[in-house]
Amino acid sequence: MNLPPHLSVQDGHLLIGRHDLVALAHEYGTPLYVTDEERICDNYQRYRNALASLYPKSKVLYAAKANGNVSLLRALGNLGAGADVFSSGELELALSAGMRPGDLLFNGSSKSPSDLNLAVAHGVTVSVDSLDELHQLDAAAKAAGKNARVSFRVNPALHIPTHPKIATGVASSKFGIAHEKILPAYREAIACSNVVPVGVHCHIGSQILEIEPFVKATEVMVRVAKELTGIGVALEFVDLGGGLGIPYHHDTDPRPTPEEYARAVVPVFLEGITDAGISPELWVEPGRYLVADSSVLLTRVNSVKFGHKNFANVDAGFNLLIRPTMYNSYHEVIVANKASSPAEETYSIAGPICETGDILAADRLLPAVEAGDIIAVLDTGAYGFSMASQYNCRPRSAEVLVHGEDKALMRIRETTKDVTSTMVTPPWQQQR
Ligand code: LLP
User: Fold this and answer.
1) Residues annotated catalytic, as ranges
2) In which element (H, E) is residue 49 found?
3) What is the average per-residue pLDDT within 57-64?
4) pLDDT recorded at residue 158
5) For 328-373, where are the E strands, in sequence order?
6) Which of 60, 152, 285, 379 for mutating ligand 1's site (highest number of atoms within 8 Å of CB)?
7) Quick one: average pLDDT of 107-112?
């Protein structure tokens, strides 16, 4: 199997950077997420350089939802990244990681009054998703005696080749404002007393392995940008969102690169803004591309069962990695302590959760698996821990970060007590 440069095999063990993953599993326990900080930094630099080499006014906002550990936000912030934040929590995380309010965009189709107040208080630009929200934000800014910086999220209504649950730029999606209604929306914003339109935003979907949809979206966005310029909006940025996919099937999936993305999108962008007579910043919001391949999920085999199907029953399930269950997604798996052994038998890697759908990987040809083996589930850095739950009263795992020779926890393992610590006894039960 093709491995990215930060993963390798030595003496039959799988390594991340310079660290033996089997040793890490034994030292920190399982289940365990392990992330390579340098890989994330490399991914970021590559993405940024691909765009900035063609258009210097390009800016990468990391989509914090992909992996919200503050250590990763700090690492990316130190390199100059901003962030796409999708909740008050993510906004606070990004600020606590040292990112500047001006480098954040507050996204989302359903923001609460307190979300809007927080954005106004910190002067974070809001990507507004409805006229209702626009007027609420205007009122919030007025009450605070401030002006809110806004963009609208455009829904370009395209065909997006990805899993339907993560296609957002399609006409039926809950996100954004239909592009034909976007001019009236900006006119309404201009008429508001306390909002200032400064940008325009779209995000068409996630895990997209073709470049063409991004080009189509860019065509829509520069058309909109020209129209907005025509009605007097001074655009500081055009944000094309995230969505570039990664090859989860290492040997067979297409591998679109940031360079291909930039070579296809930037000329369309440049032509459009030149035609409009403007030079806004070009913002993008990758999540998956920056972090997905940086992490592995290590899970220990509790037992093996042979029958109609063979199962390796492991200690991580969809409580820690919901992607296979939710999107039928594929992740490569490697028996980390038998990484050089020949494949012998087909197994499904089954989690400990009380549901038939709790299969991390189906029907994989692997070396003979036995209790105590450590299975590495690859490409779990995006939407892995960030979508984890405590289902079945299972504490969430620890997370280890490696950097060169260094390794350290970036999140401690929860205990059952942590899971129950927010439960309180209603008064009528206390009397019993
Ligand atoms: N910008 C916005 C407004 C977003 O909603 C997202 C992702 C991104 C950027 C980053 O997209 P990316 O570059 O990571 O594709 N849980 C799903 C993915 C959901 C994506 C949600 N929004 C999965 O595991 O595949």
Assistant:
1) 354
2) helix 37-52
3) 98
4) 83
5) 333-335, 345-350, 359-366
6) 285
7) 96
Say how far apart CA 47 and CA 271 lie, in whole Å: 21
| pLDDT of 432 strictly over 80 | no
CA–CA gap between residue 248 and residue 28 (Å, rounded)? 26
In this structure, which residue's CA is closest to atom 20 in ligand 1? 206
Residue of the CA atom closest to atom 19 of ligand 1: 166
Q: Which residues is 345 bridged to in the sheet?
A: 366
State percent of the chain over pLDDT 70: 100
Do 335 and 348 touch, CB atoms closer than 8 A?
no
Identify the CA nearest to 56 among candidates 243, 218, 266, 205: 266
3-state secondary structure (DSSP) of residue 158: coil
Distance CA 299, CA 374 (A): 6
Quote the ligand 1 centre to 285 CA distance (angstroms). 9
HSE at residue 112, side-chain half, CA atoms within 13 A, is 6
What CA–CA distance (Å, rounded) separates 112 from 126? Answer: 12
323: helix, coil or strand? Answer: helix
> pLDDT digit string (tens) for 207-260?
999 999 999 999 999 999 999 999 999 999 999 999 999 999 999 999 999 999
- Mutation pick for ligand 1 pocket among 40, 60, 65 (CB with most ligand atoms within 8 Å): 65
Cα 302 to Cα 158: distance, rounded to the nearest angstrom:
46
Residue 115 CA to residue 329 CA, distance in Å, equals: 32
Distance CA 142, CA 138 (A): 6
User: How far, in Å, from the CA of 201 to the mean position of ligand 1?
Assistant: 14
Q: For the beta carbon of residue 260, count every other beta carbon within 10 angstroms.
A: 15
Q: Using one digit for the tens of pLDDT, what is the confidence trace for 297-349?
A: 999 999 999 999 999 999 999 999 999 999 999 999 999 999 999 999 999 99
pLDDT digits (tens, 9 = 90+) for 134-177: 999 999 999 999 999 999 999 988 888 898 888 888 888 899 99
